[in-house]
Fold each of these.
Amino acid sequence: MSAIKIVDNVWEVGVKDADLKVFDITMETDGTTYNSYLIKGSEKTALIDCVKENFTDEFLANLREITEIEKIDYLIVNHTEPDHSGAMPAVLDLNPNIKIFCSAAAVPYVKNIINREADIEGVKDKTQLELGGKTLTFRLMPYMHWPDTMMDFLEEDGILFSNDGFAAHLCSDQLYADELTADVDYEVEYYFKCIMRPFTGYIRRNMSKLDDHEIKMVAPSHGPIFRTEPLKHINRYKQWSRDKTEEKNLISIFYASNYGNTFQIAEKLASLINDKGYSVNLIDAVDCDADEVRESIESSKAVVVGTPTFNGDAVKPVWDLMSLFSTVYSIGKKAAVFGSYGWGGEGAKMVADRFSGLKLKVYEEQYRARLIPSEEEMTSLEDFASGFTEFVG
Ligand code: FEO
């Protein structure tokens, strides 16, 4: 891919990775692009982001179509994940005097990537950089996708350089979304679900910053540029990242049960919590759809997980379910655990510890019943339900 002019004195200079099949280990793709942008003001030249390391030669060739690398004044690092920073050391090799602008959070990451002395400035939100007839305003957008992420708004042309935000892993000869035959809307949503969904709590706090700008074009660092309906995917992000816990008074109970004992507790607990005025989703971890679980976690004020203990551990379907908590935003959500057991009963505590590790707020009491729950044990479940719902508030 060569340098492509977007507007006067602004070029897309990135590369295509048509063969990429999996991104970030988990996201299946059919290729992507690593977009980078070069802006020439009347006084200064700025480069926004680099590309993955193994595309360095092609990237440098694209840049040289517009300028000598040594004449680039500024490197804007919006995000330090290697798909955008891999070629950064090569740029520094050729131009050791280039000044780097990035978020304050990114400064240590940049240092760890370039491993040399360099002129690095960590910027605050709304810092402006004048290039001469081209003005960049930096907006800090933490966790879109890493703590370091920022976006840049080019005031004179109304272009938002959004890095991973509003991106799609699409690889095409066309630069603009309105030229593609692919289902871009689907791909943007798929990208959001795979990459952004764990950070929705941060994203909803970031998105209002974009209301400050008259955005005419959105230029992400993967996939096509959006020059028509530029706010479409910004508004979709606002919708997807909204706080769903406010919409339903919901508590989700996930359980696995072999002989029916944990299920008996789960079913009774669902009834008791329902009596306290909450809606309840009761979901069998052994036979559930991952997306249904994610949606239920996101929509719930609190979650409860019940597991039997097998061989001194919670059971695999429960651990599989627990692995989904880090794929959505669950930090600070209230949680409790319960389970039945034969001799050790360690499973429930292990799940509680995992919840704590994921930064959920865990109700201190763990409800456990041995083998077939006795009448007395089922009565004590009422106290557990009362205490937990008070904890949820
Ligand atoms: Fe495209 Fe988070 O890197």
Amino acid sequence: MIHKLQSIKAKDYEGNLVFLYGDECAERNLPLTRKEVELIKARRERDKNFVQPFDRLPNRIYIVSFDSERDASVCQEHLRRSAMQLLGMLETDRVDELAVSGDGTLPEEVAAFVEGLTLADYSFDRYRSKEVYHLQSLIIDSVYFTPDELEASQHLWNRIFWCREWVNMPVQDLNAAAFADELASIAADMADVSCTVMDKKQIESLRMGGLLAVNRGSVDEPRFVVLEYKGSDEAPICLVGKGVMYDTGGLNIKPEDYMQEMKSDMAGAATMASVLFAAADNDLPVHLVALLPMTDNRPGYNAYAADDILTMYDGTTVEVVNTDAEGRLILADAIAYAAANYKPQLIVDAATLTGAAVRAISTFGIAAMQTGADNPLTMMKLVGEQVYERLVEFPMWSEYDELIKSDVADLRNCGTTPQAGTITAGKFLAHFAGKVPYVHLDIAGVAYFSKPQHYYRVGASGYGIRMLYAFLQMQDMINE
Ligand code: BES
Ligand code: MN
Ligand code: ZN
């Protein structure tokens, strides 16, 4: 979808138009006849939130009515969602080009609506032989944004699309080596992003026992990708992302249909790479290092087994209790590597880590935990509310430490009881961050939707990118 800015006079615009109508004051400026205005007024008396199309043959006008008096973030999220409803109508009407305007509508409201329409328009098309409907171009009234503002948003949306595309791709076409190559070639075209790809030999010489163990059952080599964007001289924020290209469970193989959708188990890595690229696109004054361990998890001939005891990058020994708790093993090496080599001000990881997170809060937000990073996580919760990618903080009480103690090693890779599975996973990871302020984001519930949700179709969402980007924007204000 192409976005353009243009001055729009709603009343005499010739073309398909959507008019955002949130406030009675704008009534006189509705691009409608008197009778049509009466109809809109009557509908608003029952419920302020609806989309009403009117014919202007050969075009159409769509009135998106909303309630501008609600809490700003709720109102904006409503507009994102109503964009999805509108998109359904646009598809039926085969609209190629649409103009957006309003009256008394705030720039943030228009931005949210455009964002919803843009995110909703994405679908995973590359394996389809039939053409799929997409809105071709969106003309936005130039009173709302400067060209620079629009460009910055487009950069972010494009990064979200690429994240979704990678997550949607099956492992047959995106294994660790292919994903690493893809990131390296993107970085090569960006002046201020560097990329280091470590192959199996290098990972062996780093003694990343977790990543190597998970990879042992696979015919595909692992990769460890490090991206760096140095937009400031501050100590870096390290972004660690789980890159399990496919999670069969390993020898503890996933039963029945639990394996389905596990191509999405690299969403954390895709998210963190996308956040770093977006920050670089828009020259945010932050220093970022993304550390992305990648492998699939399979029950091959030499696959790692329960009872194996691994020695991790930092020397910690880990008893494998279940080969399906593989994410924390590859992340532990990457987190320890970040802490040891970058003197980070903060480590944040994103990972589709536990089914327990989905059971706890369903598909409506991120399960978050922190050690020594109360302020950063509070900030993330705040911006998360604003962009409506929400976080809920889980406790990190010391009692949970007991649940991951092993009889034969320093730690076990899953809890002694199945209770609090999301927290024991977070506790396990926090061990490897040591004293570095650390935030853990379990995105298992939100990275990939099995059914359409709001402005997302079935499949990858890119959920969390907007929140982390907004967090980094705040960071720049704090540092100034
Ligand atoms: N990738 C899965 C977690 C997952 C489950 C993500 C469902 C998205 C949807 C992870 O590797 C896993 O298998 N976790 C196990 C951990 C258990 C063995 C301790 C789980 O949650 O069952
Ligand atoms: Mn697993
Ligand atoms: Zn997994």
